[in-house]
Amino acid sequence: MDEQQLNKIKSDPGFIAALDQSGGSTPKALKLYGIDESEYSGDDEMFDLIHQMRSRIITNSAFNGERIVGAILFEQTMDREIEGKGTAEFLWQDKGVVPFLKIDKGLEDEVDGVQLMKPNPGLDALLERAKAKGVFGTKMRSVIKVADEAGVTANVAQQFEVGKQILSAGLVPIIEPEVDINSTSKAAAEQLLKARILAELDSVDGQIMLKLTLPEEDGFYTELVEHPKVLRVVALSGGYSRDEANRRLALNPGVIASFSRAFTEGLSAQQSDEEYTKMIDASIQSIFDASNT
User: What is the mean pLDDT of the chain?
Assistant: First the structure.
């Protein structure tokens, strides 16, 4: 593990940019970016366009390690190049941003109020490939819809089981049991979630990261922020607008952003380079400020 990268994630001010929408959410991401489905045909063209979108973000002068400590990539983005280098290498060597990889294969159908991750039989090979490409850590998402004790327990257990597999491969897992922001029992689900995470942390050998929904109770995850086995707690935007996500984030000291949609909100393929830079710079600054409150 790279000590420089570890120290950056552990203690530098800043946030993690989540650039990892994949498969099903790609057309939506492109549409928000101003590219309609009628403008491309087939997956190859779609993924070329999403890589152009991500390359434009990553190569922008405002996007660098001064305010952004890490970036989460989709597998296809990791496998492609930016300015003649693998994306992960470019991020670290040229931008000073620590690369992470989204490794889950999507969600199972809902059972007991949660959606677990689909099986991932090729994970060991993917982790090996990621490590060879200079990736520092991984991210995997499952979802909690309601405060069901059996469901939350199963969700967190699965996350930690896979997390240990990732740790043993020499990478740092970002464990992401997302609580749906529209859950009718969100606060109760968060109580169950925190208790289960604290219980699972006892059996962890090493340090993990947590990516959590912004909680109903301010400062609710401080116990996790301060836990010796937690390298960093980051927050997802979860469908909140950037303003609302930033407002909530600022009320949770020690938690930093790992926003996806709220990060790219307002960026468009039609913007001139000047307009685009102005927009991404303002977005980065607002999320940086909320992450360091």
Answer: 96
